[in-house]
Amino acid sequence: MAQLVLDRIGKSFGTTQVVNAFSLEVPTGSFVALLGPSGCGKTTLLRMLAGFEQVDEGTIQVNGRQLAGNNLHVPPEQRNMSMVFQSYALWPHMNVMDNVGYALKLKGVKGEDYWQQVMQALETVNLSHLAERAPQDLSGGQRQRVALARCLVSHPDVVLLDEPLANLDQHLRASMEETFREFHRRTGATFVYVTHDQAEAMALADRIAVMNHGKLEQWDTPEQLYQYPQNTWVARFIGQGSILHVHRNTDNRLLSGPEVMQLLSSSLGSTRQAILVRPEHVRVVENGLEIQVLSRVFKGERYKYTARLSDGQELDFFHPERLELECKVCVQVQQAWVLMD
Length: 341
Ligand SMILES: Nc1ncnc2c1ncn2[C@@H]1O[C@H](COP(=O)(O)OP(=O)(O)OP(=O)(O)O)[C@@H](O)[C@H]1O
What we know:
The chain is an alpha+beta fold. The chain contains nine helices and 20 strands. The strands form four sheets. Strands 7-8-9-3-10-11 form a six-stranded mixed sheet, with helices on both faces. A five-stranded antiparallel sheet has the order 2-1-4-5-6, with helices on one face. The protein starts with a strand and ends with a strand. It binds adenosine-5'-triphosphate.
């Protein structure tokens, strides 16, 4: 299996730089997500990994073997990587079995051996009963599972997935997430999964590379990204929360409840600093910071509120009970995270 190393990768189309000095070390067998808004360069980076696109700068290595950079470009078929696309990319004139077995045929695998390997891959994704079907007679989820089975037969070191769930509805996405987890567990391959959906990235990946304008903003576990975003941009992009400006007079980054309450109720201190308050860290209490409720959204198990602080800044919070708009309540903030820019 593969340790994947990207070192200062750069790529431009014409005069537009779409990937900029992007470096990452992906541990062998891990499941990583490239997460970022539309147009930030995720697919371009994935295509450079696959070998469909040349790198302009930097190098790509797998297990110490250089694949790209310094005038070298190993073609896609010699990288032992497999790519799964949003559009499934199945051949309509071949049935499920032949779609899955195509790469084996190219390698000259035949007869019983061919049949066994294809059926084993189809069983892994629970599709052996549909081996004779044409792809166009399958649902979206089934088509994506055929694409996974096709990937499985070639035993890749690295599996590259480009928004593979984007065409599926919400319910199917959840069950396909489980299929991906299982698929990753079985193959032991290194997975690089491109998505702009943070919930999907958080649910699937052990580590997430957050990208913005072709650059790496943060490379961390889902938990670290959520709790300790590096900067204001990542804090806005990941999860819900309020970014408040306070006059800060401490060097700590993780602020305790009493520290935040003190900062929110004073205007002393030399530096204006952004802090992140997650809605689950705000409690409605008898005595605390007075706020005025501006909006309410019913979320099933609780409501999500936006309220105004006395200095005009807005604070989001969750509360299990219905509060009237415009009413004043008191809250306590239990912790906050100082943002660096
Ligand atoms: N072949 C190309 N020629 C010119 N520009 C391109 C080409 N491919 C991509 N781009 C541009 O490069 C930028 C990054 O595109 P890319 O598809 O990598 O982004 P992305 O993050 O994957 O976006 P999305 O989530 O919308 O798929 C975009 O501005 C896109 O228009």
